């Protein structure tokens, strides 16, 4: 926490693939063993393995500005891409695989990952979905729960902005975020229920663990939740970002939503509960269409053009964005998405190029160019 805007951090999950065939490549362990030889990482940046050996995660440190966050995410992507290339792998920022699964079965999972495999069976056996998780600092757990109650209306819009998973093992799913469809198979996914304080939140999670729906209390699948590890609200709604700019946009909007919620709470405005069914419809519609059609406004229980809801989101958080100095940056980043499309739009434009060409393009798009600007073609 700080005296200014809340702190923020981002966790980015990536896929590892064979750069020639597009097959998912279970090379996470050797890449982890060598990434330190491919350049220094900013203080606080951490690299982890993920559920599958075809995935890696890079987590920023605690950041206060967009420039600081962009620097950390850029450095992590460059280092990981270099280490992956040294192991004849490509690092891809995509929510789901564009090519087929591993050519040979990877070794069985161990530890907590083995518990997850045993609990969920075929639902998780080929789960290689990658997300972009944003953490925003809050003062205490009760405040975190109250903030989460204010976020539900806007989470589908964040998902639509982030959509970057149109393919699944070589086939076009017709969805903008197939990752969200895969995630919805798990129990307790979607918008969190409206809860009154951290004690009620903790009891709700413990009940799901007792029912066998969750392996442990750290595993809730809600799209925003109080973090179990940090004094933050954790947004888990976004597909992994195609570019660093897309990740920064998610972080700035997420932080502004928390700031707006804190202001509302300080002024005595509690969030109204959403209909669980309408909230689920809003998430599904965002996953299906991204920004290319209508989305569901879960608060108003009606369909509206996607960009209308994006504009309303920006209006909702205009004051905190202006206060943190991020309003101009967010407008610029949104204009780039409006002009160039989401990650899903840009991936789908490569449909006729073939898997190998798509992998080459995604490899280049994942890592910012050396001069600091991001690839657009």
TrEMBL record:
It comes from Amycolatopsis rifamycinica. The keyword Ligase applies. Keywords: ATP-binding, Ligase, Nucleotide-binding. Belongs to the glutamate--cysteine ligase type 2 family. YbdK subfamily. InterPro entries: GCL_type2/YbdK_subfam, GCS2, Gln_synth/guanido_kin_cat_dom, YbdK. This is Putative glutamate--cysteine ligase 2. Pfam families: GCS2. HAMAP family: Glu_cys_ligase_2. It catalyses: L-cysteine + L-glutamate + ATP = gamma-L-glutamyl-L-cysteine + ADP + phosphate + H(+).
């Amino acid at each position: 926490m700080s005296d200014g805007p809340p702190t923020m951090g981002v966790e980015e999950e990536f896929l590892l693939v064979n750069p020639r065939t597009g097959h998912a490549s279970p090379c996470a362990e050797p890449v982890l063993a060598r990434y330190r030889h491919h350049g220094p990482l900013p203080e606080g940046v951490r690299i982890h393995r993920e559920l599958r050996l075809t995935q890696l995660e890079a987590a920023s440190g605690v950041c206060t500005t967009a420039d600081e966050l962009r620097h950390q995410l850029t450095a992590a992507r460059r280092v990981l891409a270099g280490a992956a290339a040294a192991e004849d792998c490509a690092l891809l920022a995509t929510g789901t695989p564009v090519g087929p699964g591993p050519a040979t079965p990877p070794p069985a999972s161990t530890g907590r990952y083995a518990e997850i495999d045993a609990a969920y069976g075929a639902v998780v056996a080929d789960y290689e979905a990658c997300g972009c998780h944003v953490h925003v600092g809050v003062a205490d757990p009760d405040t975190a729960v109250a903030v989460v109650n204010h976020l539900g209306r806007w989470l589908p819009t964040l998902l639509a902005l982030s959509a970057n998973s149109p393919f699944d093992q070589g086939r076009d799913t017709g969805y903008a975020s197939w990752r969200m469809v895969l995630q919805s198979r798990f129990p307790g996914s979607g918008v969190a229920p409206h809860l009154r304080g951290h004690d009620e939140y903790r009891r709700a999670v413990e009940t799901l663990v007792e029912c066998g729906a969750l392996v442990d209390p750290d595993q809730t699948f809600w799209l925003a939740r109080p973090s179990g590890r940090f004094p933050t609200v954790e947004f888990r709604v976004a597909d992994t970002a195609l570019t660093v700019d897309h990740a920064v946009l998610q972080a700035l909007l997420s932080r502004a939503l928390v700031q707006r919620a804190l202001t509302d709470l300080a002024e005595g405005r509690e969030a109204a509960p959403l209909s669980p069914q309408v909230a689920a419809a809003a998430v599904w519609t965002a996953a299906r269409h991204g920004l290319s059609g209508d989305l569901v406004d879960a608060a108003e229980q009606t369909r509206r053009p996607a960009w209308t809801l994006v504009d309303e989101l920006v209006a909702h958080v205009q004051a905190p964005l202006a206060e943190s100095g991020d309003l101009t940056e967010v407008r610029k980043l949104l204009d780039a998405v409006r002009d160039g499309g989401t990650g899903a739009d840009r991936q789908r434009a490569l449909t006729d190029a073939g898997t190998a060409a798509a992998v080459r393009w995604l490899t280049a798009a994942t890592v910012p160019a050396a001069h600091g600007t991001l690839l657009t073609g």
